[in-house]
Design brief:
Radius of gyration: 62 Å
Strand order of the largest sheet: 4-5-3-6
InterPro entries: FP_C (IPR057251), Zinc_finger_PHD-type_CS (IPR019786), Znf_FYVE_PHD (IPR011011), Znf_PHD (IPR001965), Znf_PHD-finger (IPR019787), Znf_RING/FYVE/PHD (IPR013083)
Number of strands: 10
Keywords: Coiled coil, Metal-binding, Zinc, Zinc-finger
Oligomer: single chain
Number of helices: 10
GO molecular function, one term: zinc ion binding
Helix content: 40-55%
Pfam families: Baculo_FP_2nd
Strand content: 5-15%
């Protein structure tokens, strides 16, 4: 495959135009033709076609055309008949030569400009091809940009829906948490209420073959209360190994359903046994002090222990009444009491003031 003599680009056989004189090959577009317009020329003109360079008059060097101008006599310039007309003769000859030189220079410039224009025009199809490719690329990028914008908008909508869903779930979790707290509180209150007919006797030594009925009867005699409403009594059991110096397991006393008043009487008279030791009841060697307490759930028992630990030295009195843990700084603060409740495993302190000082004082004295 040959190349175009004008643009130096490869040229195919179908797009090739050969000069009759110099035999150089050209693109149709490089010499100002199209294949259709060249085909409209006469057969002789097509077979004898010359390139723009060969159409110019022959030049041996840069001064050829100028010499030819000066070598040929100026047209219509008659020789002078008298010496007085020599100046006019040479002036006319100079004007004639200048006019011919101007014409030749204009022709050369026009040929050069035409050749440059043909070369630039030949490059237009390539430029157009590049422009078409750029336009197509921009169109693809525009479509892709529109797709990305649409996907981004969809993502934003999904995120907004998810945020609303998460908010609703959080609200439901808060609501369920509150319900769970209330439910746990109700369960705790129910468990504590189930122990309303029970008391615990702490500090009595456990001897082999002990008779709890006799032990409970001796305790009742000491504090002057009846044991007729007691349904059963037994020691609490534990799976943990006990040390030799460990305190004896408490005795749980269960009253009959009709023995609520009897239970309250036992609790009201429990101060009478605070000076009595275990050996006075069992005849054993242990001298533990004996206490009669309300039966408490594991949660309330743990809360009572933590309350005594945290408020030690701050509050003088810490006690339990009807499953509630009450504290008081001193006798001077009969109007101020604190109640601890358990909410989701966290101890919460609620403070209230009693409206009747006498009621509070009566509560303290009864305990």
């Amino acid at each position: 495959m040959s190349s175009c003599f004008d643009c130096q680009q490869l040229i195919s056989a179908a797009d090739k135009l050969c000069c009759y004189e110099c035999k150089n090959n050209y693109h149709y577009s490089c010499v100002g033709y199209t294949k259709t317009s060249f085909g409209k020329l006469a057969a002789k003109a097509k077979s004898n076609w010359k390139c723009p360079a060969c159409k110019l008059p022959p030049k041996n060097d840069a001064t050829t055309s100028v010499k030819s101008i000066f070598d040929s006599p100026p047209p219509h310039a008659p020789l002078p008949s008298m010496a007085g007309n020599l100046d006019e003769y040479f002036r006319n000859m100079e004007l004639s030569l200048l006019s011919k030189l101007k014409t030749e220079l204009v022709s050369l410039i026009e040929e050069k400009i035409l050749k440059d224009i043909q070369k630039k025009v030949g490059a237009i199809p390539q430029v157009k091809t590049h422009l078409d490719e750029i336009t197509q690329s921009l169109s693809l990028l525009s479509d892709r940009y529109d797709t990305i914008i649409a996907e981004n908008q969809q993502s934003r909508e999904k995120i907004s829906r998810l945020e609303k869903t998460v908010l609703n779930i959080n609200n439901k979790c808060v609501y369920l948490e509150k319900c769970n707290v209330a439910f746990e509180q109700e369960i705790h209150e129910f468990e504590q209420a189930s122990l309303n007919y029970r008391i615990e006797i702490v500090g009595i030594e456990k001897l082999p073959g002990e008779n709890l009925k006799e032990v409970i009867s001796k305790v009742g005699d000491i504090i002057n209360v009846s044991t007729s409403e007691i349904e059963w009594a037994r020691r609490t059991t534990t799976t943990r190994p006990l040390k030799s110096s460990a305190k004896p397991a408490p005795i749980v006393v269960k009253f009959k359903a009709s023995g609520a008043d009897s239970r309250d009487t036992w609790l009201a008279q429990r101060r009478k046994i605070m000076q009595v030791t275990s050996d006075k009841i069992t005849g054993g060697l242990a001298t533990n002090k004996i206490y009669i307490n309300e039966a408490l759930t594991k949660v309330t028992r743990t809360l009572l222990w933590n309350t005594k630990k945290q408020l030690h030295g701050v509050y003088k009195y810490i006690w339990v009444s009807s499953g509630k843990i009450l504290v008081k700084k001193s006798e001077a603060f009969l109007d101020s009491m604190l109640m601890y409740t358990l909410v989701m495993g966290v101890e919460v302190e609620e403070c209230w003031f009693t409206l009747a000082r006498g009621c509070a004082r009566g509560l303290i004295l009864s305990l």
